[in-house]
Amino acid sequence: MGKDKKSNGVDMEIQEEHADGVRKRETWTNKIDFLLACIGFSVGLGNVWRFPYLCYKNGGGAFLIPYFILVIIGGVPLFFLECSVGQFMGVSGFRAWSICPLFQGIGISSTIVVFFLNCYYNIILCWSFYYMFSSFALELPWVSCGNSWNSKYCTDFSSEAAESPFVKNISSMGNFQKLVCSNATETYYAIFNESGTIRNESYSTACVPSHLRLDSVQEFWENKVLNISDGIEPENMGEIKWDLALTLLFAWVVVYCCICKGIKSSGKVMYITATSPYLFMLALLIRNCLLPGARTGILFYLTPDWSRLNDLEVWVDAGTQIFFSYSIAIGALTALGSYNKFNHNSYRDCIIFACANSGTSFFAGFIIFTILGHMAEVQGVDIKDVAAGGPGLAFIAYPKAVSLMPGAPIWAILFFLMLILLGLDSQFVGVEGVISAVVDQWPNLLRRGYRKEIFIGIVCILNFFIGLSMVSRGGMYVFQLFDYYSGSKIILFIAFFECIAIAWIYGVRRFYDNLEMMLGFRINPYMMVSWTVLSPIFCMCVFIMSVVNYSELDYKRPTKPLYKFPTWAVGIGWGMAAFAAIWIPLMILYRFYERGISRETITYLITPQGLKDHQLRPQDKKEGTSADKYRTSNPPPYQEKGTANEGFQSNSTLDNTKL
């Protein structure tokens, strides 16, 4: 048994030691570890590619207005809610939501969502490793045309050759276009069909319409890195790209090595991974601002198109981005909070985190849009047409920016190392969210010897094999399927029930008392209003708008027709989403099936289970029933036969629904 630290009778460690040989549950070594873990997890690749992409997709500045409004209404309150639930309960996953047994399925649903997220998030790390390894060369492979992966449309916009010969005449021929081009010495012509395919072999690379020209950076991404096929259909999936498969394996090995010893090792790694990227981002922004066209990009980023605010999709994307960026409703925040000491000031950390998270997203937007403005100017096209969407934006705009810097290979290595560091700590915590949820459920089984390390290895291997489908030629389409269905709209559904469970069933006033017990002071009443009214309305409104404004998944590629995902693929996507969401109502039905439909069952389901002495208010202890009687009749769900169960209390007579 470990030595307990006491303060006014409160167990400050909140550790659990059941039988001999079962390891104690870890806590953060230092107070700052929790804040760095939150920043490291939530401030990551989503800030540097997803946020700028959604700004790019939704008209630049118009996206910023709903984003910051919804951060205040939903982002900050929900982030603090999840962290404080984990800190109060001292466990994660299914057991954390024993605070409201009626909605204990929240723990299962959020764990499934973060498992899906881990499967595809590490693919971005895989791409980053690929780019970093490719940067070890005298010349970056994506800066010029003429390579084996380049097409006829590849254009070196940095050279004078991109401007000559000039298109002198364009004439329509039914479904075709005829271009006549000439320079000082020669005349060329080219005929294109609607999709841009060249219909004759006598042509010049420059004798191509501007909207069909492709930058060498884009072609390296699509033709070399992805070698992307024409769709997700079985005949188009193609073979696994073994170079990407090896980088994916390497990424998972790195993740395992950093988390296998638990939060005490991964927490130290985050001192570097959570802080170092900011220095490089600042250097990159300074360089980008000196490029021609950077001002145009900044104006596109900051100037709102007010008409876009009437578009439901803008508000839906803003809401889902907040959930994605703040890592809400995926269980990981509850896991991080559960490693805090009981009296840790997580309220202060929440405010600091919100400033760091949204500030990083806003800052990253300047880096992206300055280079997009430059690319638009040199290509002679509108900024909204300069790059494909999705995660590819970060692997087009950023590599282009790096290639323009003196000593480009060195900068490229450092940049992609930064991107890897941003992604690794997010992946650490994502995997930890799955591991802690399962280990907390069966501590006597998995906290013995090296069983936890073995279990972590099994989870990483399973994620790796699922990820192999995303490193085939059709892998980008699988990636989009995971991202669109399992990692976006469904978390709104989960977060809504989190608010209902705490604010309306457990009791928001009671939870405020619990927070005062933990923090030592009464927090601002705004959180109470948010959890009770604003945040649930926010979750439901964005969810309903996303359903009303739903459009089936598609994928846009430069010079290619818009790809619509087949019905069966969309069905798989909805199947993943349903598999995560169904556990909330399923657990409610199971509880009633298990215990019967009665007044006593309802009382049990709205009464928190497994609380200890330090988690009860003075009025709870006065009104409560015998703890011994509760232990005998209602053992905690993780309890194994023949093990100790000290310190658990319940109060079946409390008015938990009173606000």
From TrEMBL:
Which PANTHER family would you find in this protein's record?
SODIUM/CHLORIDE DEPENDENT TRANSPORTER, TRANSPORTER
Grouped into one coarse class, the protein's main location is membrane
Keyword check for Transport, yes or no: yes
Q: What species is given as this protein's source?
A: Magallana gigas (Pacific oyster)
Q: Could you tell me where the Polar residues compositional bias lies? A: 646-659
Q: Which family does it belong to?
A: Belongs to the sodium:neurotransmitter symporter (SNF) (TC 2.A.22) family.
An example Pfam family from this entry, by short name, is SNF
Write the lineage as a comma-separated list.
Eukaryota, Metazoa, Spiralia, Lophotrochozoa, Mollusca
Q: What is this protein called?
A: Transporter
Membrane topology term reads:
Multi-pass membrane protein
Residue stretches spanning the membrane: 32-49, 61-81, 102-130, 240-259, 279-302, 322-339, 351-372, 408-424, 454-478, 490-508, 529-548, 568-590
Where does it live in the cell?
Membrane
